[in-house]
Amino acid sequence: MNQESRTEEFSVNGEELLARIKALIHEGNIRRIIIRDKQGRTFMEIPLTVGVAGVLLAPTLAAVGAIAALVTEAQVVVEKVEQEG
């Protein structure tokens, strides 16, 4: 079985950031999420592995909530894993 990754990038406002990150985590095929400001500076990079429990993500989601309170708009880069074969 081959794994191929692809990236997607989109903008969200600060109010939507936390909800969008939670939804992405629940998709299950996400390898990494990067949150950047409008100028392209990286605020946070979240590596995700298979089987990450919600309890382990709680501090990360709290940090995302703090970032969301500080920014009006953020760029989210998502690296997804595609299963082939």
DSSP strand count = 4
Distance between the termini: 5 Å
Structural class: alpha+beta
Q: Figure out the total of helices.
A: 2
Describe the largest sheet.
Answer: 4 strands, antiparallel
Strand order of the largest sheet: 1-4-2-3
Proportion of helical residues: 25-40%
Order of helices and strands: EHEEHE
Q: Output mean pLDDT.
A: 85
Overview of the structural elements:
This protein has 2 helices and 4 strands, in the order βαββαβ. It is an alpha+beta fold and 85 residues long. It has a 4-stranded antiparallel beta sheet with strand order 1-4-2-3. A hairpin with a 5-residue loop joins strand 2 and strand 3. Helix 1 runs antiparallel to helix 2. The protein is globular and about 40 Å long. The relative contact order is 0.38.
What is the topological layout?
Layout lengths: L1 E12 H14 L2 E7 L5 E6 L6 H17 L2 E12 L1
Helix pairs in contact: 1-2
Structure characteristics:
single chain, about 80 residues, alpha+beta, 4-stranded antiparallel sheet, 4 strands, about 45% strand
Summarize the structure.
The chain has 85 residues and is α+β, with helices and mostly antiparallel strands. It has two helices and four strands, in the order βαββαβ. The protein has a four-stranded antiparallel sheet with strand order 1-4-2-3.
